[in-house]
Amino acid sequence: MRLVILVFVAGVLCLQQQSALPDLTWAWGLPLLLSAWGLPRVGRWSWLRRGLLLGFWLSLGFFYAAFWAQQRLAEQLPKVWEGVDVSVVGVVASLPVVGERGQRFEFDIEKVPTSGAVVPPHVQLSTYTRDFTGQALPDAITVHAGQRWQLTARLRRPHANQNPHVMDMEAVWFSRDIRALGAVRERSPHLLLNEQVWQFPYVIDILRERIAMRFDAVLVQQPYVGVLKALAIGDQSAIPVAQWQLYQRTGITHLISISGLHVTMLAGAMFALFYAGWRRSMWLTLRLPARRAAVLAGVVTATGYVLLAGWGVPAQRTLYMLWVVALLLWSGRTLAPTRILAWALLVVVLLDPWAVLAAGFWLSFGAVGVLLFATGARVGDAQLHWLQAWWQSQWAVTLALAPVLLLLFGQVSTISPLANALAIPMVSFLVTPLALLGSLPHMDWALHSAHALMAACAWWLQQLAAFPLWTQAQPALWQVLLALAGALWLLLPRGFPARWLGVVWMLPALLVSPSQPQHGELWVDVIDVGQGLSVLVRTVHHALLFDAGPQYNSTADTGNRILAPYLRSEGVMQLDEMILSHDDNDHTGGAVSLLQSIPVAHIYTSLPTTHVIFTGVTARLSHCQPGQSWQWDGVAFQVLYPDAASYSELDRKDNHRSCVLKISSAGGSVLLTADIETEDERYLLANASGDLAATLLIAPHHGSRTSSTAEFVAAVAPRLTVFTVGYQNRFGHPRGDVMARYAQVGSVLARSDRDGLVAVKFAPDQAMQVQYWRQQQQHYWWNDGYNK
Asked: Exposure string (b/e) for 330-359, b if CB count within 10 Å is 16 or more?
């Protein structure tokens, strides 16, 4: 049965890798495969019978996931209702996440008063209480979990930036059944219909929000209140970025979510309490044995905790395993731990076919599987002291999951076993129980105690954080699988021959040599950062980043969300040059976090050298000026703009001081123009017209009407023009007339909202090679906004 479950899950996983959903009429072939059940179980037909039956379970998993995917895709927001004000009635269906400018929450739509409007039943909305300058908005509203509202919202299809090695937010939204995103219109009428809707599951979110408010009231402005919320109710939104970086660096992020260990600990504590009390009453034990009553109390407690904690995959896995164990105890049967794990795996995938897309799914089931393997092998020696067994268990999980972490995140904590040795018992057996106890009224002392212990744990982690992370380029899947096999081989029992071969098998994943340009080649990656700009330029021995994309808020920006993971996974561990073209958020917003993550040797910029971005930066700073040039590996770089006199013009608009860079190679040339406008193009035509012709052009100012004059377009005459724009952006970029000018000179037009990352390679004596990420790695849930 374990093999059958694994094959079924493999079928579900196979479906989630498809670029388009299959025709479900093919599912009528399943009975033909199932007919193999009637073949002989022995003799020459046995292998055919087994193969056909495994094919049946694989196909069943594939079509099971396909059926539910089609149901979800059918709830797509019609194109005609994108960007249109729609009145909706529904219930706040999640714990609202409070940001700097407002709230973000999920909303179950019950009714649509707008005539003819068609909207999905489950959406994610945002409210704004402050404008871009921080001023309070007079008509702002504040929502709470479980409230029923009539709101006016403007919706759009879920659309996210698409780049290799970076989290696919469209997959996250799709797996959570969020079929539209939108903003509540501040100046439109809104009406609170019911203060609280006492229906399941809204009552759970109401309770979660009340606990969160209690934590905020008791632990006012305390640094680790966000961690306590995460441990008690699964709300991680209040944990600062700096703390997340500390937990990631020390390898304990699994503890900050509701892990299986927390659920098991709480269920075990309730089992012990019930068992100790129940067995003392003859009347109770005669009606229900104490062990059965205690088991029931434990799993019911675990179920309540998992619901309260947001129903995450690791917690689900533990809960289902506990229920299987409880049913077995009630029935008087026994089952191998691996069978229990397999049944839990099946239940998770049946209830949520998209769980296989989550990193937590693989890490959670993988960690338990490794522990079961190691417990029965090398680390399961009965003669081991409990402390030694604990340490070796931590080592087993760290060793086996290291390849998976490299595949998912491109880095592994080198001191994870040491950090977890203290953090696991402290967080799981002290901080979490106290946080849960503190969620009850009049238990302030428990919250203060939990916070003090968490602060002590964080101090210990800060001491360990000085040790380096293992960071490298992302390995290929075959390298990860080989390394995983090597790790398991190393964990075989003592005395097993040639266990050292496991180290050899792990080397390909640990010594990844990413592909790099050859001498004279030029690689240009126009990274999809939405409405903004960031371009990675590479030669054989050097790397340059032109601009760093936008900042979303004080804790999230392109630097930490997109650029740092992408650069690390591509093997770019340092930048020789960074150009920050001008002082606009959509070009420099991600610079601070990126400079904290990736070493940079030299920065060219038009910003003042005293700008806050450069605080604490050790890189050399230079102002962009015409005449600056250098050569890397047979590729020439030349700064064309702005002129030196512009720096003395204090009232000059930032766009009119954008750095312009021309890159020339034997295979083609690139012109990076940032946000120059008409008058800047005139300057370039008058002073650098001979250097403007380029094979690849990043369109000035995202294709706005204030740039890309006919004369400039004719002078550049690019073969490929890339517009870096956000989906459904409020500026209307790129303008239709601007795109027409480039089309008239024969340029191929690409845009980041439709194509994702655009990778261009120039090589001597070869044609320009272009790859569009959304075309290269399609998924059936992706929304390009144009073809679907």
From this structure: eeeeeeeeeebbbbbbbbbbeebbbbbbbe
Q: Round to whole Å and give the CA distance between 125 and 96.
A: 10
Q: Specify the pLDDT at position 380.
A: 40
Is residue 608 within 8 A of residue 588, CB to CB? The reply is: no
- The pLDDT assigned to 389 comes to 65
89 contacts: CB under 8 Å, gap ≥ 6: 109, 110, 111, 112, 113, 148, 149, 150, 151, 193
Can you give the pLDDT at residue 387? 59
- For the chain, residues with pLDDT lower than 50 are 377-382, 788
- SS3 at position 111: strand
Would you call 685 helix, strand, or coil by DSSP?
helix
Write the CB contacts of 302 (distance below 8 Å, at least 6 apart in sequence): 263, 264, 266, 267, 270, 318, 319, 322
Please report the pLDDT score of residue 757 as a whole number.
97
668: left (phi over 0), alpha (psi -120 to 50) or beta: left
- Residue 66 and residue 272: Cα distance in Å, rounded? 44
Count of Cβ atoms closer than 10 Å to residue 10 Cβ: 15
What is the per-residue pLDDT across 9-68, written as a single tens digit (0 to 9) for each?
A: 999 999 999 999 999 999 888 988 888 887 777 777 788 888 888 999 999 999 999 999
- Tell the residue number behind the tokens 């261009």, with chain if given: 760
Report the pLDDT value the prediction gives residue 477, as an integer from 0 to 100: 87
